[in-house]
Specification:
With about 200 residues, the protein is an alpha+beta fold. Helix content is about 25%, strand content about 30%. Strands 1-2-3-10-5-8 form a 6-stranded antiparallel sheet, with no helix packed on it. Helix 2 crosses helix 4.
Length: about 200
């Protein structure tokens, strides 16, 4: 394993997430000095330390240790997709591979009948989201506007405003979000965004 390349990869992922060394060290339960040494390629971390750093970054361990390769084609198998079951019964699956420096995600979410996943603050100006409903009904609120979408409907919105997702129907709603985010949002007041990690 090339320690310098590993350090660059970790530093890029940390930078993409707008995390300081201190913040990642706390999230990963490793010391700041250890993390700094790893990022500079000065120290070979144990597999336990690498696993903690990957958890702190919210990526699979394989993202950190995979050999450098031609990154024009990156496959993320279904078994490797991040599945998150949220309070309230809704589920989101991050379908896309994590690509350092590219803040794009494609996510599939399922809201149970009557589930209101809450409102979430906007991202930085220049951020975009596309939503496509596979099944059921989705009420999307963007700023002061609300729109109801049915299976087959899709919508675009500038993602720099408060937005929320709810299922007003009596059957589950499954939808996809394709999000291009310029940088991480401000801290949300209510849990996780069903469209984002």
């Amino acid at each position: 394993m090339d320690l310098v390349e590993l350090g660059r990869r970790i530093q890029q992922l940390r930078s993409d997430r707008q995390l300081t060394l201190q913040a990642l060290a706390e999230a990963a339960s490793v010391s700041v000095s250890m993390l700094s040494s790893v990022e500079r390629g000065l120290k070979a971390p144990t597999i336990v330390v690498l696993a903690r750093i990957a958890d702190g970054l919210g990526v699979p361990l394989s993202t950190l240790v995979a050999a450098a390769r031609d990154e024009r084609l990156i496959v993320r198998r279904a078994a490797d997709q991040d599945v998150v079951d949220e309070p309230g019964g809704w589920r989101r699956v991050i379908l896309t591979p994590v690509i350092p420096g590219i803040n794009f995600e494609w996510i599939r979410s399922t809201l149970p009948p009557g589930c209101d996943a809450g409102s979430y603050p906007g991202y930085a100006p220049g951020s975009h989201e596309f939503v496509a409903v596979d099944s059921g009904r989705l009420r999307l609120t963007v700023g002061d506007e609300a729109v109801e979408l049915a299976a087959g409907d899709s919508v675009y919105f500038a993602a720099d405003v408060t937005h929320g997702y709810a299922n007003p129907g009596s059957t589950p709603c499954t939808y996809h979000v394709a999000a291009l985010i310029m940088r991480p949002r401000h801290a949300a007041a209510t849990g996780g965004d069903p469209g984002r990690r």
